[in-house]
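Quick question: what would this complex look like in 3D?
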Amino acid sequence: MEVKDTAIKESHMKAKLKLAPEKQKNKKRKQKWAFRNNWPLHVLLIPGVILALVFQYGPMAGIVMAFQDFKPWLGFFGSEWVGFEHFRAMFEFDYARQVIWNTLIISVMKLITGIIVPITIALLLNEIYRMKFKRTIQTVIYLPYFLSWVILGGILIDILSPDGGLINNVLGLFGINPIFFLGSNEWFRSTIIMTDIWKETGFNTIVFLAAITAVNPNLYEAAAIDGANRWKQTLYVTLPAMLPIIIVVGTISLGNILNAGFDQIFNLYNPLVYETGDIIDTYVYRVGLIDGNFSYGAAVGLFKSFISLILIVIGYRLAYKYANYRIF
Amino acid sequence: MFKKSFALIGITIISMLLIAGCMQKQETETEDGNPIITTVRTLDDGTVFKDGEDVNNNVVTQWAEDELGIKFNTLWTRPNDEQYNQQLRLAMSANEPLPDVFQVTDAQMISDLIESGRVMSIDDAIEEHASPRLKELFEQFPEAFYQATVDGVRYGIPRLSGGNGSDTVMYVRQDWLDEFNLEAPKTIEELEEVMEIFVHEDPDGNGADDTIGITLSAGDVGFGRTNVGDTSFIFGSYGNFMPGLWSEAEDGSIQYGSIQPNMKDALAKLNEWFEKGYLSKEIAIEPEDQAQQSFIAGKSGIIIAPPWAFDYPIGDLFSNNPDAVVKPYALPEGIDGEAGRKGERLMTGSFLFSTEFEHMDKYFEYLDAIYGYTFGESDYFENGLFEGYDYVMQDGDPVYDAAGIEEITGEQKVDPGRYFLPTNVPAIPYQMYGILEEFHETERAPESAYEASLAGREPEYVEAAALVNQQNDIRVENLFTGPPTETMIKSWENLERMELEIFANIVYGNESIDAFDDFVERWKSTGGEQVTTEVNEWYNSVQ
């Protein structure tokens, strides 16, 4: 018995060994063959790769200026190297800490509300029976997503004005004194987050709605038979089914955690609210582009990118572990 | 095999095209032996060409070639200063050959170019080639050269501005004044009385308490840095310094305006006005173009603005309310007749010349020829710039106004002045408003094509220009036109942010007026003192 078994095993192994090189050869041949046939497609790829190299990777060389005392007329090769001098200056400067702190608060709030609000709206929309009504609402919510902050900035300053702005007029009807949404440090961050929700919610709502439609209807039927009402169905069927997409959306936004929204804040902030509203990007803009302190601006920006990279890696690991989601 | 070589050929052709694109060969002379002058420029949306003309082939380039024997070759254009500077900086860092002649507005870039040694000194060229009237003009405004002066050597020809073109006057709703039998305010106190009535007596007659006294703007750029809604006269009513401007102190040094004692008084006054509702609640939030809406909408009785604002934005008021009457008045004065206003800079940028440029004589010939129009003594522009463009002849007389030209030719009036190298008709500081003042005061007839083109503007505009020119002695100009100093690059963001924050917060009453003293201390100790020293070093080096 035993002998026979080993014999069989051996023969199997032999067969495998025999097969293996042939398979590899085959594979190689196949690849070669594929390339011979597909090379025009690869050639077509070249311009795209070149563009990416030139415009995405080439400019990255500019990072070196964060470690230099960069002078434009001396260029990258002539400027003096200063190592981590600019980073040290950044951490020693109180205001830089304030700016990082503002950025974190605003973007974390945006991250959280940017998931909770669209999910809620998606769930509510999903319960609407009339398709026409549902679609109308969906479109209306989605619409602001297409407007640029440059335009919205002007509109919002008008709407939020304490001098007869729409919102304050409505609040006035309830006997509330005019609120200085864009001019007081107590209100500025909330205003930023609210307006961000208003503009961006539509997009994520659609993503989540798509996830809901993808849920297998059998699950609902089974749950109904087990006596679950709509609420319980939502809680135990819809939400768990949506979890992967929620994690994906959350992961992707995690990489943006130090982007508190330059376009938005730049168009809405003013000296009265620098204390609570000035973020890394607006700060870098003023230091680097307006005042020409290129090296320091680049250092702050690089620091931001570095933290973002770490967060993306963490987010990616988490998503892989808990939602089995892989991008790469 | 065939396919392979085909691919190789393809790739070779593509890369050759790419390389060829980077290596444009430049001719320096035309076939007739005329010099070719290469240049680059901004070309904004306001520059209109007739059909078939473009930046390299138009009535001006043709004229230059025929009359002066200069062929201009504009290598590239960009629609605004920002993109222009960016392109120039790219060209610089790529070590591309510089154009022969080009204008730069950014002081940092001017300094970089001079430091790189690729632009040439023009001291000798002025001496040798500039016409007497150009020399005289240059001698009249030596400060205009400071921007492009290093170690006493001049590298740039300034592109002179109208001097006081964007200095401000007070435009008042005359119909509101008349309604309450008021005189136009001449002092800050009188202004307050008028504003009190404008705010509380419902001058627009709509029964709602929705008017403000005066349209001022600070917005995100800060106090004293806007044209329409300019706040500088309030600071000027208390002393000689303007926020954001470096100007001369009594000891002859130059000092930063925003930390001077007169700021404190003016800010206290602005805060008082803010509390009393004379100002827009959003003075520190709205940018200039949004702040002006209160006046256009007929919700404000006074706006501080340059004379040209009478067309726009003030013109929009008349389409909203045809009965509105707006008149210009001199800026109000403070106690003891103290007055001041922010003055426009004498130049906007400088022309620089590549070291390889060999035809400075031609450049000055060209400059003198186009300046001839502005001087009113020209061999080329007797009736205007170019017939069929900015004027047409009818019965032997030139017609300048747009409507008239359109009626006669059926084509729109086109301003060929914008095709000139300085991107506009060359200006002489104070000259234009000076002429308008004479028109206003003496009703003398225009003596040149240039003057004739100025005549026939709205009387309010002419009066405003006259008022600005009469108050020239109160203007305070920014004397620091050099590149940002070393400490400025390091700490200006911080210094300016502190300033904008404290100014806005004092006006809004979030900080007490005494916080200003604290700000001055902090400003000085966190780099301001050092910046002041450096700015003075620069100032002494260019004089």
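Answer marked as accepted. The CA atoms of residues 41 and 188 of chain B lie 44 Å apart.
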